[in-house]
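Q: Given only this backbone (663 positions), what sequence would you predict?
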């Protein structure tokens, strides 16, 4: 019976369209899943979307949609994108599916029956953006993860007895394989050592979630619901024998891949929930770092995302996959830039593997009629043996590094083989041998081209999980058929069959020129639209965010569609305070109906903070956030600007509700 392998991505929130930060997690998992399939494991690769909770409910409201409509649309975007990228997931779970909802309730029931759930009252701070209860925070405190102001929650909830699992969790972390990399493991250990409080696992002040069994006034906390996907997708809690079989076969998961910001949910709450349900924990949880763009984490709220589609349109999916896994040291943060992407593409793919494939196969075509030639013992040199040795070592090293999630080092090793063969070709000058007609030269030419082709085959086989499209093409060009049928565990030197007939030879990675960078940048700028691209921002970088009054008069007219892009809303000032060491600046917390925003405004010289509390203002709600004095400003207040720059806030004569849109 074959070995099984179960790997999962986190499930993606549907409040944001997919960007390359999301693609990063998915690509890493896809690569691992593909390698495992070639190693003969019965592989199950799961991904999906996380669709419940207050964050999604509010985002849907703001978009004027029902949460279900909203979730349907964005979930479909994730599915389409993964399909376009050829992601090889075996299932895609949505938390709004019936199968999931029923099975989550089953898990809740099981844990309750085991005595780990009780009813109580929660009073404390909550971050809707991270769907996180922030222990020990006071009203007005920011979320420790995202910096947004937390909201006060006071509600009857169900609690999970997390405090009962401290010792068991610490015992689990004694296994160094459970949390990787080591730095994350250490963080988790010190967090758990400092003591665990029971955790609220239901909410009762909104409805967009899975009802608590036997008490439908409550919905299950979105993280409990979401984490359970790893079980529900493979059949947990189903009465269907097929599903039960699948669950027995695949659980516990072999690898659960996550980003570093969700380590606590996965490494503390998740194993505790499993222990409470009497289920085994996953074997390994691997946390990767963040993809940064313009020096901060790429995310919708920062407005600095890069869409995957742009890269797919210009360079293709393999280029992105290779870049992310080669350039970013797995586990650490890594910067994305179009320049670096194109540079890597050209140096490693177009000039590296792509060039090696085309020159080797073209010469076999030209000199040996498109059939893999016979190497001869008589014409063998130490240089040929050296290449065979490098190839053997690369197979070993690549496997060891890759299976330790050290993708960039594994790829470095594989590309060192490509570079060694390039050098070998240059030194052995097959083109010169090809011009000669004598037996000896011909026999030497056969040996050199066989050696190059065999090394190419090995590099291609190793690279397949990372660049599946291009390697599949090279495989066909080498006359080897379907690369998915390759048995990676048997990969060794000398298996390339003599007289194999090559297929049609085409370049797999055409070189990209400078215009590729410009095209991608332009596509992204167009997507961001005029508001985000040229915000009506004050001239100095550090100036407070306050809408300027009358624009410098221009005759240029904008369309109603342009105007509609600016989301103006009524906001209610909840908190206003001076910012230390900034004479002009006030820090405001403004309720815009769907959420409370922190806005920094340069109005301190015109308004005393206490006069603003309870006042209705107009806020530009969809302005990309920016940092001022180390704090995030999330929106801009609209004011008339009088002579001398004195601001006068816009307001209303009639009463208007917070959140109302200005049109
Ligand atoms: N819904 C939760 C996960 C629930 S799993 C039971 C969630 N979703 S998310 O959409 O915000 O993030 C999903 C994954 O995308 C995470 O692993 C996260 O780290 C990853 N990324 C999102 N933006 C990212 C970057 N800029 N860089 C790298 N990965 C990032 O969290």
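A: Predicted residues:
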């Amino acid at each position: 019976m074959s070995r099984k392998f179960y790997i999962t991505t986190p499930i993606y929130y549907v409040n944001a369209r997919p960007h390359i930060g999301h693609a990063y997690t998915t690509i890493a998992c896809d690569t691992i899943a593909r390698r495992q399939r070639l190693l003969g494991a019965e592989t199950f690769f799961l991904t999906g979307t996380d669709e419940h909770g207050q964050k999604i409910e509010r985002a849907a409201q703001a978009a004027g949609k029902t949460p279900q409509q909203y979730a349907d649309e964005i979930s479909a975007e994730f599915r389409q994108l993964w399909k376009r990228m050829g992601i090889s997931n075996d299932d895609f779970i949505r938390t709004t599916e019936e199968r999931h909802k029923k099975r989550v309730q089953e898990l809740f029931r099981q844990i309750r029956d085991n005595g780990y759930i009780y009813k109580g009252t929660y009073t404390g701070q909550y971050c809707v953006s991270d769907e996180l209860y922030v222990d020990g925070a006071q009203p007005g405190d920011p979320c420790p993860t995202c910096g947004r102001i937390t909201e006060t929650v006071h509600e009857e909830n169900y609690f999970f007895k997390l405090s009962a699992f401290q010792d068991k969790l610490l015992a689990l972390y004694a296994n160094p394989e459970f949390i990787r990399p080591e730095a994350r493991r250490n963080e988790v250990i010190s967090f758990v050592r400092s003591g665990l409080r029971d955790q609220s696992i239901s909410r009762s002040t909104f409805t967009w979630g899975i009802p608590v069994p036997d008490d439908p006034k409550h919905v299950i906390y979105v993280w409990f619901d979401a984490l359970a996907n790893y079980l529900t997708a493979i059949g947990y809690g189903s009465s269907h024998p097929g599903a039960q079989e699948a669950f027995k076969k695949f659980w516990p998961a072999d690898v659960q891949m996550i980003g570093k910001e969700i380590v606590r949910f996965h490494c503390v709450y998740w194993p505790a929930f499993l222990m409470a349900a009497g289920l085994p924990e996953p074997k390994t949880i691997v946390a990767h770092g963040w993809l940064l763009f313009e020096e901060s984490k790429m995310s919708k709220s920062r407005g600095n995302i890069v869409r995957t589609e742009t890269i797919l349109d210009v360079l293709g999916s393999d280029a992105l996959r290779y870049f992310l896994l080669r350039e970013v040291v797995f586990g650490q943060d890594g910067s994305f830039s179009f320049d670096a992407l194109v540079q890597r593409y050209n140096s490693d793919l177009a000039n590296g593997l792509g060039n090696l494939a085309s020159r080797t196969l073209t010469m076999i075509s030209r000199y040996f009629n498109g059939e893999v030639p016979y190497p001869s013992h008589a014409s063998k040199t130490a240089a040929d043996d050296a290449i065979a040795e490098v190839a053997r070592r690369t197979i070993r090293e690549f496997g060891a590094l890759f299976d330790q999630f050290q993708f960039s080092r594994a790829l470095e090793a594989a590309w060192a083989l490509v570079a060694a063969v390039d050098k070998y070709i240059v030194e052995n000058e097959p083109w010169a041998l090809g011009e000669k007609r004598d037996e000896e030269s011909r026999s030497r030419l056969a040996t050199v081209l066989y050696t190059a082709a065999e090394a190419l085959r090995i590099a291609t086989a190793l690279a397949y999980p990372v660049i599946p499209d291009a390697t599949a093409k090279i495989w066909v060009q080498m006359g080897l058929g379907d690369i998915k049928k390759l048995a990676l565990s048997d990969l060794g030197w000398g298996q390339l069959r003599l007289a194999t007939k090559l297929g049609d030879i085409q370049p797999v990675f055409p070189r990209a020129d400078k215009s590729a960078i410009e095209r991608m940048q332009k596509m992204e700028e167009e997507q961001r639209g005029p508001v985000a691209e040229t915000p009506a921002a004050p001239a100095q970088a550090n100036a407070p965010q306050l809408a300027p009054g009358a624009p410098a008069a221009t005759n240029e007219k904008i369309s109603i569609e342009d105007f509609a892009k600016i989301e103006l809303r009524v906001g209610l000032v909840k908190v206003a305070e001076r910012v230390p060491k900034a004479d002009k600046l006030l820090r405001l917390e403004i309720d815009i109906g769907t959420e409370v925003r922190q806005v920094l405004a340069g109005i301190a010289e015109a308004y005393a903070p206490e006069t603003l509390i309870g006042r209705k203002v107009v806020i530009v709600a969809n302005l990309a956030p920016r940092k001022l004095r180390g704090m995030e400003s999330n929106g801009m207040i609209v004011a008339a600007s009088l002579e001398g720059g004195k601001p006068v806030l816009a307001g209303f004569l009639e009463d208007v509700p917070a959140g109302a849109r200005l049109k």
